[in-house]
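sanity check this chain:
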Amino acid sequence: MSEPTWAQVVIYIVKSLVANGKKVLRVTSESLLSDPPGPPEIQGYIEGETIRLGQTVTLICVSHGGNPLAEIVWYKNGEGVDFSYTTSGRESRNMYNFIAATDDNNARYKCQARNHMSPEPMTAEIVVAVQCELVVLYVLV
């Protein structure tokens, strides 16, 4: 049986007060719940769609929830290409922009979402298709 994917931390706050000339201790607690983020989703490209050579492409990776929110990283063919991400409300996102080049044709773009509660990073991936120009050379003999 696997371990739970969440943890609860309780912080106890002790305050010393003086009431009616007597020292009184007041103890309160605050619960902090940690959990892994939701699986990442890729926006901005539909697999099978063809991108034109030289076209500006924006891939967006979004993960919802988690405490703390997810860190999101983009990879191209296994190599990290964008480690920047933003958080807002209950969402993390990383927007990766590039100009489609010939080496992007059949490139595998993967985004990973994780926080310290993730046993393994969660991933989503796509393979990009770029329409490359066909160059025909005529040799006159």
